Amino acid sequence: MFAYRIDQNEDEVVVVFEGDLDIDSSEVLEEDILPVVSEYPNIRLNFGEVYFVDSSGIGLIIRTVDELREGGRSVKIQNVRPEVLEVFELLQIREILGEEVFE
Amino acid sequence: MSMERSIITRAKSAETAVEEALKLLAVNRESVQIEIIEPGGRGLLGLGSRLAVVKVTVLQMQEGRGSAAPDSAAASPGQADQTLSAEAAAFSREEQPTAAPPRAAEQIQAVQTKPVSADAEPVQQGEIGIENGVFRIVASGDRLPLLTAPAGAVLYKNGVPVEGRVSVSREDRLELESKPQVEPAVWRIEIDDFCLRAELHIQPGFETRYTLIDCKPQTHLSVPVQASRTLLPVSEAEVAARLKEMGVLYGIRPAEIKAACFTEHAGVYTVAEGSPAVQGTNGSFEMNFETETKHLGPKNREDGTIDYREIVEFPTVVEGDVLVRTLPAKPGRPGRDLMDRPIQPNPVHPIQLAAGEGVSVTEDGRRAVAIRSGMPRVKHQAFRVHLSVLPKLSHRGDVDLKSGNIRFHGDVEISGGIQNGMKVESFGSLAVRGAVGSATIDAAYSLIASGSLIGAQVNVGKRNEFVDQAEPMLLEIASQTLMLQSAIEQLSQTAAFKLNDLQQTGLGALLNVLLRGKFKTLHAVLVRFSEQAGKNEAQLDEEWAAYATRLKTGFLDLRLGGFRNASELDLFRRRTLELYESLCGPEDRPIFADIQYAQNSHLYCGGSVRVAKGCYNTTLYCQGTLDSGGTLRGGVYFAGKGINVKEVGAHGGVATKLQVSEKASIKVGNVMEGTIVQIGRRSFQFIEAASNVHGRLGPSGELLLF
User: Fold this and answer.
1) In which element (H, E) is residue B84 found?
2) Is the N-terminal amide bond of B77 cis, ω within 30° of 0?
3) A95 vs B517: CB contact, 8 Å cut-off?
4) Would the CB atoms of A54 and B502 count as touching at under 8 Å?
5) Helix H segments across B537-597?
6) Chain B residues inside the 8 Å CB shell of A63
7) What are the start-end ranges of the E strands in B65-219?
8) Chain A residues near residue B501 by CB distance under 8 angstroms
9) Which domain holds residue B11?
10) Which pLDDT score, from 0 to 100, does residue B136 have?
C-alpha cells in the first residue's frame, strides 16, 4: 500500500509518502512524482509515514536524489522513522547521499 | 746487673705444679725458691676441684741474696696476682728454655710474661685466658688485657654483647651465648607455565652452638670458639601441604621431597612431575612421479665450452598412474598435568587430496589417480594437496596453414616447425623441434625451441603477470565478501527492511546500494580485477575466465539481477578462496626459455633464457639470467639477474647492447668494438675489442668493467 501527497508553494515542494517504499511503489515514484517535483528548486521528501523499505525502494530513492541534484535541485529527506533509519544506517545511506540531505 | 727468673704453674696438686715449673725452668729443686700460692684440693663441700698454684723462683746466686719470698700463708689469690705481675717484670723470656707444651691431662697452664729489662720502668700488663671453658682474667691496675669477640658467636660482657675489641678487668663477667643460633631453612615451590613440573628450591636451615676453646692467658685474646652445626630438616608434611595448597595432585615424588628436606646443601628438587602429552604425527604423502622439470645440464665440456643438447625433460604420467599416496595421521596420547588435568596433544591433520583437472581421488581419500595422460601438477599448501594433470598435445609435422593455429590448454609438443604468420599458444609448456619463422609463440611456463627462431615473436611466462596482480585482489575480494554476507544477514533481521524484492529479482538492487556505500572498497577491487581480466582475456584459462564472468555478472553488471541469493554469494566467495589457494604456495613449474638460435626475433621471458648458439639482431627481455655459449651480434639484450655470454658484437660495428639491472653483472668472454654495456643507469661503449669483461657497479655506484 503506497500513497503520497504533494504540498507545493512558490519555490518549494514537499512530498509526503505514506506506506511502504518498495519495489511496488517504485513505479509511482518514478512516473508520477518525479516529473512534478523536478519543476521546483527545493524539494523535501517526508518519510514520516514510511514504515517499511526494501532495497529496490532505497535504490530508487538514491537514484532520484542523484538525478535531481544533478539538475541543480536541492533535495532534503525528513522525518525518517527510527526503524527505517536503522536500515539507512546499515546501508550507509547518509554516506552515499551526504549528511546535508537529511534533516 | 741482676736478673731473676720466676714462673707460676698450676696443676692438680702443688707437687705436680712444682715439678712442671722445674722442668720449664730447667733447674733443680735446690736452686729455686718455691711459694705455694694456692694449695688446691677439693672445693667447698667437696664439690669440684681447685688447681694448686705455685710460684717457683730461680735463686740468682747461691751465695747471694736470700729469698725474698713472702709469707705463703698471707698470700691470697688477689695478692698472688699482684706478686706475679711484679715479679714477672723481671722474668726474661730469652733466658727461658724452650717450654715443653703443657700436658693437657694435668691441666697445666704456664703463664709467661714479656721480657723486660730490669732497669726499664716496670709495666704491669694484664692477661686473659680460657681454662675449662671459663675465662680467667689476670689483670692489675695499669694495663688491662684486651679481648676480641669471636666471629659468629655472641659474647656478653656484663650482659652486653661485645663487638670488636674491648678491654676487660677482673670484675667483668664474661659469658658466651649458650643458646644455639638458628638459621631457618628457606624454601619455595615453583610450578612451570605448563603445570608439568614443581620444583622445590631449598636453602637448608641449621642450628649452631658455640663453645669456648681453652687457651693460655695472653694480653690480647681473640676468643677462640668451636662451632657445631646441626641440620634443621624441613618438615616433609609441610612440603606436602604446600603442594596440596598449590593444587598439585599428580606426579608427586615423596623420595625427592624427602631428599630435599634433608639436604645439607642449597639445591633444586623436582618434587612433582606431570606427564606431557605424546604428540601425534600429521598425515603425509608421497609422490610417485618427478615433480620438477629435470634440467639435465647444461654441462661444461672439458675444453670450457658448454653442451646445450637435450637439457630439459618434462615429467609425464599416463592414464591410471597413481600420482600420490597419503599416509594417515597418527593421533597423539593425552598427558596429565600436576593438577591432574588431562593435557590434550596437538590435533593432527590428515592430508586432504583435492582433484583438479585430469585427476580422480579414490573413495577412501588415500590415492590420487591420473585419469588422463599428461603433465602432473602439484600444489601443496598446509594439509591440502591439489593435483591436476595437464593434457599434452602432440602435433606431428609443421604448424602451417593446413594445420591451423594451435591454442591448447596444456602442454604442446610440435615435432615440426612453425611457419610464417602462424600462432601457437600453450597454457603449459611448449616444445618445438623444428624451425620457427615469423610466427607468434606464447607459452605459459616454458619454451624449448630446438630449431632456429627467424623473425619470431615469443612470449614465455607472461600469464603470470596477471596472476601476480590477481593474488592480493582475490584475498581482498574473499574477505570483503564475507563481511558483505554478514551485512546482508544483519539487514535481513531489521524490522523495517522488506526482503520480497530480493526473492523476486535477486540480490542486485541491494548489492548496488551496498557497493556504493559501505562496500566502496570492495567495489573498487572488483572493478580493478574485472579490468585486468579483460586485458588478459586471451591468456586466461577456463577456470579464470569463468570466475571473471561470475564476478562481473554477480556484482558489476546487474542487468540480470546479480547473485540470486545468499548461497550463490557464498559459493562465489568460496570459489575466490579456492582460486587464491591455487595461486599461492610454491610455484611448481619453472618459467624459462631454451633456444638454439634467434634472428630478427623479439623474445620476452618471465624467467631465465639460455641461448645455445647465439642471436642476431634480436630484442630479448628476460627477468632471470641470460646465458649463451655463442655470440650475440646486434640487438638489445636485457636480463634482470645478469648476463653471461661467450661473445658479443661484430667486427665492423653492428650495434649490440647488453643491459642488466643495477644489482646484476655482465660477464663476456670477448667484446667487439662498438658494443654498449649498461648496468642500472651506467653505460659504457667499447671503442676497441676487449676480453674477459666483468661489468658491474662498484660500492659507490661506479661502473667497473674488468
Assistant:
1) helix B77-88
2) no
3) yes
4) yes
5) 542-551, 566-583
6) none
7) 127-131, 134-138, 146-148, 155-157, 160-161, 165-167, 174-176, 181-183, 186-191, 197-203, 205-212, 215-218
8) 22-23, 54-57
9) 1-123
10) 84
pLDDT recorded at residue B335: 92
Domain count, chain B: 5
Residue range B479-527, pLDDT digits in tens? 999 999 999 998 888 888 888 788 888 888 888 889 988 899 999 999 9
DSSP letter string, A14-47:
EEEEEE-BSTTTHHHIIIIIHHHHTTSSEEEEEE
CB atoms B513 and A59 under 8 Å: yes
What separation in angstroms does the CA of B621 have from each of A97, B104, B423, B636? 50, 109, 20, 8
- DSSP structure class, residue B680: T
Partner residue opposite A54 with nearest CB, options B487, B501, B517: B501
Mean pLDDT across chain B, nearest whole number?
Answer: 81
B263 and B136 in a single domain? The answer is yes
B450 pLDDT band (50/70/90 cuts)? Answer: very high
Q: Tell me the CATH number at A72.
A: 3.30.750.24
| A34 part of contact set with chain B, CB < 8 Å | no
B75 in the same domain as B166: no
Distance CA B481, CA B486 (A): 9
Contacts of B402 (CB under 8 A, 6+ apart): none
DSSP B552: I
Q: What does DSSP say about strands B299-300 and B306-307: parallel, antiparallel, or unpaired?
A: antiparallel
| Domain coverage including residue A60 | 13-101
Q: Does A53 touch chain B (CB under 8 A)?
A: yes
Q: Please check whether residue B631 lies inside any domain of the structure.
A: yes
What is the structure's pLDDT at B102?
44
Nearest CA distance, A24 vs chain B (angstrom): 9
Q: Which of B442-446, B577-581, B621-625 has the lowest mean pLDDT?
A: B577-581
The residue with cell 594451435 is B406
Stated pTM of the model: 0.42
